[in-house]
Amino acid sequence: MKKMIVIIIILLMIFIGMYIYKQKRMINNQLSEISVDEVNKIETYLQKIYMWREITEDALPVFDEINNAPEIWLWEVIKKNLEEYELFYEQLQNKSKEIFGEELQKEFPKEGYEYMEYNIETDTYYAIGIGLDNQEDVFLLDKIQKKENGYVVQIVEYLEDYSEGYETTDEEYNIQIKNLNDETIGEVKNTESEANIQQIVKDNISKFTKKEVNLRTDENGDLYVISVQNLAT
Fold first, then answer.
1. What element of type H or E holds 230?
2. DSSP-derived secondary structure for 25-60
3. Angle at Cα 137 formed by Cα 135 and Cα 143, nearest 5°?
4. Global pTM value
5. Which residue ranges make up each domain of the chain?
6. I need a labelling partner for 24 at 20 to 30 A (CA). Which of 54, 193, 195, 225 fits?
7. How far apart are CA 79 and CA 59, in angstroms?
8. Mean pLDDT, residues 80-95 taken together
9. H or E stretch including 138?
10. How far is residue 107's CA from residue 202's CA, in Å, rounded to a whole number?
11. Residues 133-150: tens digit of each pLDDT
12. CATH T-level topology, domain 133-231
């Protein structure tokens, strides 16, 4: 009788263990599934915060939490996502919360900064024109891992150099695909699709910079960046 009870207990423990494993596996599978809508949402958000190296030094800088991000990058992201040329302080602050969430404790400088001039007479800010180069800062989504209340996203960074197009009158010209060290990795014609450019990046991925971006989602499903770190290539 005792042996029978022991056997039943052992079988029960095995059954419970299998059930827990199955439940965990189901949860992990659910978390690993990324829908097309989620991918589009992540890419749209990253496009909002991805800047220009010639202005912010890094198109997407490395930081361990949003309040440690470079201020010039923070303010330029806000300005990039505002359509108006003339702005009030409240508009800038509201946009900062919309893009970075309540975790951002920094306030927009009331005296303005290099690319946003404050006019004391009208109590408004004026966006100042910025000179950009012929290289477009671009990223490619590489991997997305879904986690509770957010995502871990790996991106590949590269440059599309359109200099030849500004130096020739020909309708067809070459676009150079470069890494962040300004090394040319490949070329495509301006008549080719973006998919051809991305294929060059994928085929030579070890030659490009990779970063990991931590994103969180709030109760409304809105995305906010938590941190960014470099990844070894």
1. strand 223-231
2. HHHHHHHH---HHHHHHHHHHHHHH---HHHHSSSS
3. 145
4. 0.82
5. 52-127, 133-231
6. 225
7. 14
8. 89
9. strand 135-147
10. 39
11. 889 999 999 999 999 999
12. Nuclear Transport Factor 2; Chain: A, (3.10.450)
